[in-house]
């Protein structure tokens, strides 16, 4: 059984990892994604934000957090007093998993096997960057960092030790906030969850 560990380069720098990740065949997702979407950001970043997987726009562009969830993340970071240019953003899974719906490609949740297969890239990224804190946004990122036994809802907003980093903040993915817009009478729920996400991200100012 293969995983990303079989494709890691000898030189574990961010640039070497990024080049090597383009050839990753550690799980079947590479057959369906347009390309590997690796992390991006400041090489001296003290904060690493980890999302779940690329979306449709990220898959097409090759850059993380450039779709609607990325726009909301930028807004939340700005409200929290954090410049995105000072941090590093990546995903727990580096290929877009999707299913067709007419002419659209809809997000499909990665399996545990796919998350585990891709986790060596995340571990190597964090090891190369040596940030002060890692932020896990969403259940897939939490699964990659903590394994199977930690529920996001039980620990949201807390900083805990994980296999990724000694200080790991647990929060929701911005897309979870966006999805509230599709519910009846969504406005108050949306504002509440947006404000909560901003407050959780504001904790990061103490690590910058």
Provide the helix percentage. Answer: 25-40%
Average predicted confidence as pLDDT: 95
CATH topology-level fold name: Uracil-DNA Glycosylase, subunit E
Tell me the fraction of residues in β-strands, as a range. Answer: 5-15%
Order of helices and strands: HEEHHEEEHEHHEEHH
Count the domains. 1
What structural category characterises the helix and strand content?
alpha/beta
How many strands in all? 8
Gap between N and C termini: 40 Å
**Major β-sheet, in short?**
6 strands, mixed
Tertiary shape: globular
Q: Output the CATH homologous superfamily.
A: Uracil-DNA glycosylase-like domain
Give the second-level CATH assignment, the architecture: 3-Layer(aba) Sandwich
Oligomer: single chain
Strand order of the largest sheet: 1-3-2-6-8-7
Count the DSSP helices. Answer: 8
Give the class-level CATH name. Alpha Beta
| Gyration radius, rounded | 16 Å
Low-pLDDT stretches: none
Structural notes for this entry:
- The structure is a single chain.
- The protein is an alpha/beta fold and about 210 residues long.
- The protein has a single domain, classed as Uracil-DNA Glycosylase, subunit E (3-Layer(aba) Sandwich).
- The chain is about 40% helix and about 15% strand.
- It contains eight helices and eight strands.
- It has helices at about 15-20, 55-60, 70-80, 110-130, 140-145, 150-155, 175-180, 185-200; strands at about 40, 45-50, 90, 100, 105, 135, 160, 170.
- The termini are far apart.
